[in-house]
Specification:
Blueprint (H helix, E strand, L loop, with lengths): L6 H15 L5 E3 L12 E11 L10 E14 L5 H16 L12 E7 L9 E14 L14 E3 L14 E3 L5
Parallel strand pairs: 1-2
Antiparallel strand pairs: 2-3, 3-5, 4-5, 6-7
Length: 178
């Protein structure tokens, strides 16, 4: 999926995408967001883990992984219609997540869960719902540097009519493009 994926850029792209789609949010944060003074409504994102996926070997000697993410929607329990509003926001966030690549070289996101979250005991004065999703990522540097020449035409010949002087016997491969 990517050459040496930058996880910082991926985090920042996700946060920027959420902020742009939901400008009414008071904060969109990741790790270390203050629990006691958090401005709500808020969305807190977290990369939960990266499960190695040897079945998805990209052929680049990179480490294929399924990254598992959660975005926690946090609202004050005193907000008007909080039960309805948090569900609406979590659903809308799920729609944003589904199939999103965040402008990065990762697979399209696959939403796996939208629902209540018993996130943190320090959030006992908040309603919290979670949107969880998976994205395939490839970690590390690709062995394919991109150096060299990409052919514009591919010609196919069959032995023994191959090699110099046999070019008129070749046929052009017109298979699908990039």
């Amino acid at each position: 999926m990517a050459d040496n994926l930058d996880l910082d850029q991926l985090h920042d792209a996700i946060k920027a995408g959420i902020s742009a789609q939901f400008p009414a949010l008071a904060s969109v944060e990741d790790y270390g967001a203050p629990r006691k003074s958090l401005q709500v409504p808020a969305v807190l994102i977290e990369l939960v883990d990266m499960e190695i996926d040897p079945e998805s070997d990209p052929g680049t000697e990179q480490l294929p992984a399924v990254s598992k993410w959660v975005a926690r929607v946090v609202m004050s329990f005193r907000a008007e219609n909080v039960q309805r509003e948090i569900r609406k926001l979590a659903g809308a966030l799920g729609v944003l997540m589904q199939q999103n690549r965040w402008g990065q070289r990762v697979s399209p996101a696959q939403v796996t869960y939208i629902g209540p979250d018993a996130f943190d005991p320090e959030f006992d004065k908040f309603e919290v719902w979670a949107v969880e999703w998976d994205q395939q990522i490839d970690l590390g540097q690709s062995v394919w540097t991109g150096e060299g020449v990409t052919p514009e035409r591919v010609m196919i010949g069959f032995a023994p009519d191959i090699g110099p002087g046999q070019e008129p016997e070749y046929t052009e491969f017109e298979g699908g493009g990039t």
